[in-house]
Specification:
Elements (H helix, E strand, L loop, with lengths): L4 E6 L5 E2 L14 E5 L1 H7 L2 H4 L28 E3 L1 H7 L3 E6 L9 H14 L5 E4 L3 H13 L3 E6 L4 H9 L3 E5 L3 H15 L2 E2 L7 H16 L7 E5 L4 H15 L9 E7 L4 H8 L25 H10 L3 E5 L1 H15 L5 H15 L8 E6 L7 H13 L13
Parallel strand pairs: 5-13, 6-7, 6-9, 7-8, 10-11, 10-13, 11-12
Antiparallel strand pairs: 1-2, 1-3, 4-5
Helix pairs in contact: 4-5, 4-8, 5-6, 8-9, 12-13, 12-14
Pyridoxal-5'-phosphate (PLP) binds next to α5 and α9.
Amino acid sequence: MKSAITHLECAKCAKRHTHEKLQNLCDCGGPLVARYDLRAAARTLTAEALRLRPPTMWRYAEVLPASERVTLGEGMTPLLHTRRLGGRIGLEALYVKDEGLNPTGSFKARGMAAAVSRAKELGAVKLAASTAGNAGGALAAYAAQAGIPCVVVMPADTPEANALECRAFGAEVRKIEGLISDCGRYVSEQKTREGWFEVSTLKEPYRIEGKKTMGYELWEQFGGKLPDAIIYPTGGGVGLIGMVKAFDEMEAMGWIGKARPRMVAVQASGCAPIVKAFADGAASAAFWSDAETIASGLRVPKALGDFLVLAGLRATQGTAAAATDEEMLRAGRELASLEGIFAAPEGAATVVAAAKLAANGWLRPQESVVLFSTGSGYKYHEAWRQALEGQSRSPVAGASAAGLDP
Ligand SMILES: Cc1ncc(COP(=O)(O)O)c(C=O)c1O
Ligand SMILES: [Zn+2]
């Protein structure tokens, strides 16, 4: 099936740009988003057609950019009804979308599959990105599959597995003393000199497109409808922005009506710029100084798309919540021991938020709620060691060992 893409549009000033050449940001500094002829897309992208398509994110080809795919089989991850965990926190219809089962163990595979496919198609010769960790691993894998060299720039204290996987995939890894914001500055300074096409978060248009497929999959997995609420661990916010965009596209194609799942952004207490901005009623977030959390993917002190995340939360009557590292580690143990899901701390943060929002009545017991477990725990040895040491110091029998305090 052919992509129905027509052009790119600036998310800030609405200026139109062509999708037929490599693009980074708009002249105004705003991120670019892909637009499609959705009437044309809807003619072939139907529930009936989907039944016959392979279980990868490329089943939504009409609303994805590339015609030549660089793929490792990303997408269509399981949606698990987590009854025991739900019982613990008082939510009957609690689901976990296990994104840790994607290639390279995180949802970053979706975005990078789309971005690298399109970059290759448009002639990029060397790719680069700043990363909190998992996006680097995904970039390195898809660049390897594409046969394009790449440079990954990450904070020096990123989990070791992220640097190892990048090197295994043949990427050049540069470590920076600092945060992802410092890595971002480094890539901006170097890219022209070194001839890189930058694929850092929101610096090119197509990672949103790959990640929005999580929203399309939910519609299929819920049998042609959407859940009442979605809880998403938010760093740069690409998945949240992408799903909100997917729902708008689905409405335009006649798949759904006006109602939307309430979107919830979860951040780490040690780096919660979106949570603060949401509480303050602000349209964008301020830089968060001294960002610190074990959830490396949430250590994003300033997101380029913060205004889009905040708009998405407000447009859907959503909210924002924070989880401490301690809470994430305990919730991760609970998710693992009650449900058999070995999650990254970012995913565990969604369990903390669900417990808090169920306890204060924001989530009602019968509502369908989806938690995004965005990455596999297998890459987070450092965090898991800490989580399990904590457990052995205070052994408590049974399911309440992880004892979420809402
Ligand atoms: C496991 C995990 N979860 C969540 C995030 C945050 O993702 P986003 O940038 O889409 O907010 C990251 C980003 O690195 C991640 O690695
Ligand atoms: Zn613009």
